[in-house]
Amino acid sequence: xxxxxxxxxxxxxxxxxxxxxxxxxxxxxxxxxxxxxxxxxxxxxxxxxxxxxxxxxxxxxxxxxxxxxxxxxxxxxxxxxxxxxxxxxxxxxxxxxxxxxxxxxxxxxxxxxxxxxxxxxxxxxxxxxxxxxxxxxxxxxxxxxxxxxxxxxxxxxxxxxxxxxxxxxxxxxxxxxxxxxxxxxxxxxxxxxxxxxxxxxxxxxxxxxxxxxxxxxxxxxxxxxxxxxxxxxxxxxxxxxxxxxxxxxxxxxxxxxxxxxxxxxxxxxxxxxxxxxxxxxxxxxxxxxxxxxxxxxxxxx
Length: 301
Description:
Blueprint: H1 8-17, H2 19-32, H3 38-54, H4 77-80, E1 84-87, H5 89-97, E2 105-109, H6 115-129, E3 135-139, H7 152-163, H8 168-182, E4 186-188, H9 192-195, H10 207-210, H11 212-218, E5 223-227, H12 228-235, H13 247-250, E6 259-264, H14 277-284, E7 295-300
Parallel strand pairs: 1-7, 2-3, 2-5, 3-4, 5-6
Antiparallel strand pairs: 6-7
Helix pairs in contact: 2-6, 2-8, 3-6, 7-8
């Protein structure tokens, strides 16, 4: 029973439902990854970062297990930009672009399998292809948690699906990523004693004493990226903060390394908004906090 994933069939069906979007994204990525120019690098960074952000909408826990096919992820970016309530992507870019080290490592705390995990791998591969980083470490959940959460075994599952795809660009992605894992440019953290923290009730501010080894490991990162709604809620303690509370204050002292949260809003907590911004959005959408329509990119460097 330890290896049983009750959500495996739903994850597989979600993957199939998102194939068109993944094919579109793989075509865009493969066409750009081997010819990244200095003058286009920042824009590509923004594109792949925000594709990873919006892929967080594809969450089976939000849709009660229903499978919704995603639209073209790259072509939709301009349309979706108006729904990013806080956009600190430029700070993230400036931080990475200015790093001078022979060992730049980005750590990504994962959320959902399917389109989102595929987008996370695309973004990670771009970071390596653009020589912005030298290694990317992924942190999954150790057990089935919120339906579509990535688990360590899902990496092998995804690579197998890509290898069997009838789309040449998806197969190319799979081959690239298998090579990245083999070369240890991609790593999946599968030590259950470390990653079990992500399924505990504790906020991230408790990590230093509840999971000191995980905290120590993350503290050596050049940048930690936290994906999704649940990780955001754990970052801010799932507390009823005023929406204008700063992201720094809401983290309650948690800051092991430079960090960024990519989150579409699916629960009624958000911080870092401007005065009056929440009221303005409320007038447009009364359920703005819970549908995944709106998003934030928040950072603390």
